[in-house]
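Long-time lurker. I teach an intro course on protein structure, and each term I like to show students one example going from raw sequence to a predicted 3D structure in token notation. This year I'd like something fresh instead of my usual example. Would anyone be willing to generate the tokens for the chain below so I can use it in lecture? Attribution to the forum is fine with me.
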Amino acid sequence: EAIIAGSMGEYTLSSFGDDPFLETLLGAADIRTRTLEAPGGRVLEAAAPFLVNGEAAALLRLGLSLDRFDAMNAQSLRQLAVTGVLTLILGVALLNFIVGHQHRQILRKGFLRLRRYTNTILENLGSGVLAVTPDGMIEVCNREAARLLRTTADQSIGQPVRDLSPDIARLVADTVKQRGGITPARRFAQDGSAETWAIQTSFLGDTGHNGEEREDACIVIVDDVTAQVRLEGQVRHQEKLAAMGTLASTVAHEIRNPLNAIGIIAQLLDRRYSPQEAEPKYRDYFTSVTREIARINDIVEQFIRFARPPKLDLQPIDFPGLLRDIENLYRETFTGANIRWRVTADPHQATEADASKIKQVVINLVKNAWEAIHEDGEITVTGRAGDDDYTIIVTDNGEGMDAETRSRIFDIYYTKKKDGTGIGLALVHQIVSQHGGTITVDSTPGQGTTCTLRFPCQRVAEVI
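-- Reply from a regular --
Happy to contribute to a lecture. Here you go:
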């Protein structure tokens, strides 16, 4: 009914009649708690019945201030808030890192794929590609460029380009100096070889931090145009031969008529005029005149045959058999002359050609090789079958030829022989061209000569 004892302070105690919570405790057997709002702050109250002989005689109530709890709870909330903010910041940073990392991985994969594609394209290009720094150091070298420079891609990287090709080094220096764009391709004959390169350069630069253009590299494209140069030379030579053949035909016809008249007059003089004195000398003169007339007539006939070559007699040809015939023809002669003579020939797909004309060509080349040999001579003839052609190679270790002679040997009337007419090799070139083939000559003074003939073959089932 009343409060017996208690230490309240600012803690206000309620009576039974005013507090339904207290009434429920009289019949309870456990401790119950509640939170109260007091002037000094919140209070946690715990209450339990005090039993006497099993009956509730009073209530025991204990109030605890929640100030420290609330302070600790507020501090925990602040720490939780700070921790949450830090966690959020770290989460955002981690998310940015993950997204950035994924983006970098995607870019890296794209870069690697692009570099792989670029490297594949560079390595399979038919042209040599170099990237050279302004100071002349090689940064990029593909497979074809390494082949032309007689090196490997790994060995060339970081090497001065002037050590591998002075021609490229000069073009790179001019391109960097002029800071120009793509330059026209220029051809360079390579010293020590029969190769001709077409070299094209372009300046590559970008913009630096200060807005000025910064030199990066010079891109060099190198093409081996040896075959093209040879083909162009053959076309020019064929055109020259055609023009000279036409001229020869015209001149030959103009010469033949007065020559025949001179011959007829000489014969009439021989029959109707008999000198009384110095008859032996007269006969010598007459013999010389008729001999020279016959020689001029032979030359005229050769000119006419060259100007109007007969049609080819195309028949199935056996290249190995043809070369064996030539081998047998010269075996005893070369053995007696102490010349090493070797002929080898591969079998080939059946094809058609004029065997007599081709035999004439090979014999002519063998004779020239024989005349070029002095001591310790060696002549080889090799027949090689390709997929769509047959190649005949005539090689000797004779005196060789200089560049000027090599460039003119197929010109009609050009010869360095005392008794030569300059028609033999011109006819060789003509016969090979009639067959749709090609002939090339590689020669170095003092190191011999190699003539390479290529005849196109029409593949059929039969094998010779």
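Some talking points for your students: The two ends are 138 Å apart (CA to CA). Confidence is low (pLDDT under 50) at residues 459-464.
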